[in-house]
Fold these 2 entries.
Entry 1:
Amino acid sequence: MRSLRAIAAVVALAWAGVATTAHAAPAQPCRVDGLAHEVLCGSVARALDPARPDGPQIEVHYVVVPALARRKLPDPVFLLAGGPGQSAISLAPQVMGVFARLNNRRDIVFVDQRGTGRSAPLDCDEPREAALAESADPQAQLRRLAACRERLLKLPYVRSATDLGFFTTTLAMQDLDAVRQAIGAERINLVGASYGTRAGIEYQRLFPGAVRRSVLDGVAPPDMVLPASAATDAQAALDALFAACGVEAACAREWPLLRQAWDGLLASLPRAVSVPDPLTGRVESFTMTRELLLGAVRAPLYVPTLAAALPAAIHAASQGRFEALAALAGALSRRGGPRLYTGMHFAVICAEDAPRLATAGVAATRDFGDGLAPLYAQACAAWPRAAVPEAFYQVGPAATPVLLLSGGLDPATPPRHAARVAQALGAKARHVLVPNAGHGLMGSGCVPDLLYRFIDAADDAQALALDTACITSIPRPGVFVPPAPEAAR
């Protein structure tokens, strides 16, 4: 939302599934910032390109949070991070609360996917707190990406531009299986979030015998074509927000013409604006474009509690006051949010999604137009990419239980994607739709308990019969109405 770095909402070659671990360093006791107790840190050496075992090598790092019980269960839980471009290890302190009950008798494993964190990172070294004005120029973003690409070519494990193509989901899942072998686990449980669901689907395709249970939270399937679907899914979430305002008494009373105010705001662009940076307080002046405004609105749609403040922010912006909208837009993508390794992000999207843009049938939406498609098309035109065979995009029947979670208000991975995947996975799949949830359910309400009961269930039938009433009935957050000024009371 702030730049190409923050756009995420998201190579099955002939040797897929047969690459072996060249070397596994024994896991050693270590400390990870944010985790209270000692954990185990290890790594496996992998060929950057499995077809060139004597070529560049990378180290894929992992962290194991050991089970608390002495008599632990043999099947650990692996977290698959989102993005693409997030480091799983960096997310460990944030998600261990979700896995606390599972961790009583199971190890929890975090693997930094190749290109992220400690595993041969493709880091564009962008500032974590980009100025508001720096986000307003898409061409400037593309120039920064081009400069990043040139810097990445100087990394010791990148000998040519072609090497930047070897950071795809398939290769990463082969790395993951090498970690499974290194820790001696015969079968594992997968928990994937957002892009991590694509990774989980691919791991299951490559290594079906190694999977015991899978949880896919906010499903982003391999055939999603992220840049093409972004506009459609964001438009649906925004339309739902306007519809909800129309039937909620407080919102309808306060802003009866919210949609008209929004249309007028869009029609007024581009325009010069001055907005205090929500973090620094410095007033910044720049041109508010349609694309920048849409990005600012799309970001809070991910979280219903933030989206509840959008009607007030849109109304204020229509009157020339953009402070609230700027604050909401930055709530997820600035200080404190998960870091995105931009080089890895584009290695995945440019290889797996961008080549299918031409045939994806991008339909222009009412407000979001073509969305991210034109920007990604330009960015990927110059990014080295690996070939992805058709088999990568096919989702076959699951041999073991899969729990799919969808938020009905999700602007990035709405239920339509999970429904399609659940049908392809067949009888072993259970799709749970939470109508009033946004993007990512893992930490919501009773979901940690549901994850525990699904993974801990003694047999497949018990796992698939999970009672999910505790989460499906959560209400939509009420709209935020700012208090009236003192003079109006």
Entry 2:
Amino acid sequence: MKIELKCENCNKMFITNFKHRDKKFCNRTCYFEYARKNNLLGNKKDPSVREQRICLQCGGEFTERKKHERTLCSDECRLKWNLIQENKDKRIKNSKKVIIEKYGVKSLFELDEFQKKCRKNFKEKYGVSHPMYFPPFVEKLKTTFRENHLLYLIPKLKSYNLDLLDDYINNKDGNTSRPYNFKCLKCDNVFSSTLLGSGKIPICRKCYPIIKNSKLEEIFRDFINELGIKHLDNNRTLLNGKEIDLFLIDYNLGIELNGNYHHSEIYGEKDKTYHFEKLMIATNVKIKLLQIFEDELLLKKEIVFSRIKNILGITENKIFARECVIKEISKTDSKIFLEKNHLQGDSVDKVRLGLYLNDELITVITFGKKRNSLGNTSITDEYELLRFAGKINTNIVGGFSRLLKYFIKGHNPSKIITYADSRWSGIIPEDTIYHKNGFKFIHQTPPNYWYVNTKDFLHRFHRFTFRKDVLIKEGFSPDKTEWEIMQEKGFDRIWDCGSMKFEMML
């Protein structure tokens, strides 16, 4: 239990455990200042060995021994200082530098001796060779991650026009389905949702209802009409009886607007091959077909519209990459940019490059070490190109080519692989930016699926989150398939069109 006390030296309130209820000072600095003021130390301490310093965080004065290197006045300032990204990066960089100088490796875990010692100590203490084989550790890790993630989400509710009406309760019992009441600040609608406990921001269904395909078509039709583009609606002749929601006549481009509810496997009766077969039919009659999911259009409308303009070649702003400067960028800058300008958002990457025009970040490309079938990162010099995005409503001519060459020159990879989403890129390799920049087409991957909660069709969840081994640890029967368990949990799934895999050997 925590209690609040008042420091006898600085008169500030501080939090401590109940068992320390007799505590009189918020930190050691206050204790020594109080002791010196009241002559409680006698002549044991020589005042000449101490000096006055200015705290780097709050700017306040504090006293410290000259031989000590401390530059922050309190634990509170230290915690705030450590949360600053620049200081985090500097601390990590210094740690890596010391390890490299002392041991010749970037991480201690690269040393066999260190790994053996860790396994030996863990074996002696817990009876297993690795922490991930110790159930209490795994459960604590999951709980800690979930709690930290939720505490990160709660302050962001205001930016989504939501107010949490209930007090947040730590889910220490592992219950991720606890309902909370929310108020929409746009329409004053009060509703209940369990999504917060699942690590997702809930959505006001009064402002964002589950809408039919016709509503999606109306939104997109308004966008096309503003551009003055001729189109056919709900045409069934071009694809031999299959319907195209909108066909842009002058561009020979078909647009399919797939409502998540109506295009799911159970509720919408759209099986694994449905979307891919429609793409094949369109390709055979030389029509480029884009298939856009409901959540993309509703939640990332500006990105979708910007991408359509790029495909049509009518983007308002044009910038030449040769006018820009290339820099390696921080994870924070990359994440912010990708969330605003890429449909898939952030990536788990190792290398992040950006194009800058007059100190403004306008293009980002990210790479990660090639993953094996288990999802682990390889230690080779093979990379995967994960994300490429330009600023919305801007055409950066030559941006991809210039960033790719810079990466190859700076990191000397032996191979680069990447994937193109066929819903957007189609199934003709020659039409892609990868083929035009020297990548070799390897094969077409089969359709992939995304899970949707039947109580909230607006969000799609990647299937990796719901692997069978994870579901079994949650208590579900190992005799059932992943799909059977997910149906039991109240989920449906949506299939896409697969991807084209490309490779560049260097």
